Write a sequence for this structure.
């Protein structure tokens, strides 16, 4: 028995050593391939990795067939086709998206991302805005809340790390102070479930998300009031101005030849707010 | 999205969950033993190192360690992030779980009566022989329930790999849940974890039975 145990321990120790070697090997491999990428741009088609939030319908989500789909993905695919780039998707962790962009896991963050001044200040290259977004209030049918003024003394939910949360904590601080409580949820589904289950009285959320949810589920309505206006753009790493310019000119071409409008037809919920079409 | 599509999609992710689980155990169990032996060493630098190791890895969240192991090398040394996410994920899990395993081993080793060492010495066993032939088998039997505890926790902790975008089962489940505004993926995830843990408990129960020979 003891011999067996010793054998197991030895085998495991050897395994551990292998992992260390493999780890170092992989890292060295990655190091040597890094410079290749820049030189091979002319010969082999460039591989463009799109960073998406796979939990953000209708811009980027998992479709009914289990594949990634959405407006932003369709547009990015068309852009890559136009530019002759190889297209790939990397689902980011939204909280760590900028770390993942920095560390070259993806080449852009393109997923209904609100343009923030703080990103520009941090040196990220941001494309021209392509979508006008507003924050809206979602309530249950029959709720006595008709505007933000009625939210005084109510419990309100917002998704953690979204521009809605930022808005409530900064520009609209006074409004937030009038709430009974502000609940931050980890994801949209949780926000909506809290509302459906009467744990909160209203949810403050991006307009396209609210409209899609209200149209697919009975018993909810989106209030007309717009709380904060913001725009969506594409983020690139600092220094990638050239790539940003290429993507922007490809977008212009797609808008001009009607491809962009054709893609937008499949997403009626957001069509009205697309800057290039309106 | 049909239930079948959800299950197939999540089963794909479950392979990755299993990869984290088995590789973490493979490396953490022996690494924990090494740390435990260092911890018990009379040579101060060794035991000091083990103490700091355990204190840091047990005292910081696994989620932070995952981020540090995955992105730390890039920010500190400019080393590209591994294309195969499994490597940093397993490294982070293994060093974290090794810290817990080390303390479990230590509790087992220190619970052995001194009389056994003395008796072994009288019988002419060397120190290594005493440890491997007499002490270790009994220690393993004693610590098995705690080890099972830790292994069951590991099954559930694999979901933390979502922090670094490793597409394991729970990450995919969350994506489907939010894309389709449906709770079904969470139920499916619960079923996956539970069935897997029932299997783990069954296997560990069998192992405990086989080790009952060393009961004192």
């Amino acid at each position: 028995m003891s011999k067996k145990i010793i054998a197991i321990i030895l085998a495991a120790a050897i395994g551990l050593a292998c992992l260390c070697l493999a780890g170092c090997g992989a890292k060295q491999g990655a190091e040597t391939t890094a410079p290749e990428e820049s030189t091979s741009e002319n010969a082999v088609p460039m591989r463009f990795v799109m960073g998406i939030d796979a939990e953000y319908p209708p811009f980027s989500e998992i479709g009914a067939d289990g594949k990634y789909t959405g407006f932003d993905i369709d547009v990015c695919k068309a852009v890559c086709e136009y530019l002759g780039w190889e297209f790939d998707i990397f689902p980011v962790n939204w909280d760590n998206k900028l770390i993942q962009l920095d560390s070259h896991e993806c080449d852009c963050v393109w997923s209904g991302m609100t343009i923030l001044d703080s990103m520009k200040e941090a040196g990220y290259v941001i494309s021209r805005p392509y979508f006008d977004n507003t924050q809206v209030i979602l309530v249950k049918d029959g709720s006595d809340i008709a505007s933000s003024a009625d939210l005084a003394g109510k419990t309100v939910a917002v998704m953690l790390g979204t521009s809605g949360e930022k808005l409530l904590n900064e520009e609209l601080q006074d409004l937030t102070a009038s709430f009974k409580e502000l609940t931050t949820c980890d994801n949209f589904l949780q926000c909506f479930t809290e509302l459906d289950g009467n744990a909160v009285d209203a949810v403050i959320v991006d307009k396209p998300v609210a409209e899609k949810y209200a149209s697919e589920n009975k018993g909810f309505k989106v209030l007309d009031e717009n709380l904060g206006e913001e725009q969506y753009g594409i983020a690139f790493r600092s220094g990638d101005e050239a790539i940003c310019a290429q993507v922007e000119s490809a977008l212009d071409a797609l808008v001009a030849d009607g491809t962009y409008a054709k893609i937008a037809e499949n997403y009626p919920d957001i069509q009205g707010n697309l800057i290039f079409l309106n | 999205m049909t239930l079948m599509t959800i299950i197939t999609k999540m089963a794909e992710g479950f392979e990755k969950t299993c990869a984290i689980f088995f590789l973490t155990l493979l490396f953490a169990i022996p690494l924990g033993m090494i740390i435990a032996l260092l911890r018990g060493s009379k040579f101060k630098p060794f035991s000091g190192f083990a103490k700091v190791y355990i204190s840091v890895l047990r005292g910081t969240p696994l989620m932070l360690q995952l981020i540090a192991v995955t992105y730390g090398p890039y920010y500190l040394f400019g080393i590209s992030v591994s294309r195969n996410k499994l490597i940093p994920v397993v490294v982070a899990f293994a060093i974290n779980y090794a810290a817990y395993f080390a303390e479990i081993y230590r509790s087992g080793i220190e619970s052995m009566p001194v009389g056994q060492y003395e008796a072994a010495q009288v019988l002419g066993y060397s120190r290594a022989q005493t440890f491997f032939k007499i002490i270790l088998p009994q220690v393993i039997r004693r610590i098995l329930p705690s080890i099972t505890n830790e292994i069951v926790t590991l099954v559930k902790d694999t979901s933390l790999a979502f922090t670094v975008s490793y597409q394991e089962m729970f990450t995919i489940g969350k994506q489907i849940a939010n894309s389709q505004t449906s709770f079904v993926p969470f139920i499916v995830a619960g079923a996956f974890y539970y069935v897997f843990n029932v299997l783990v408990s069954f296997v560990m129960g069998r192992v405990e039975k086989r080790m009952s020979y060393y009961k004192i």
Notes: The two ends of chain B are 57 Å apart (CA to CA). Helices of chain B lie at 3-39, 44-59, 62-77, 86-110, 114-122, 127-157, 169-179, 184-211.
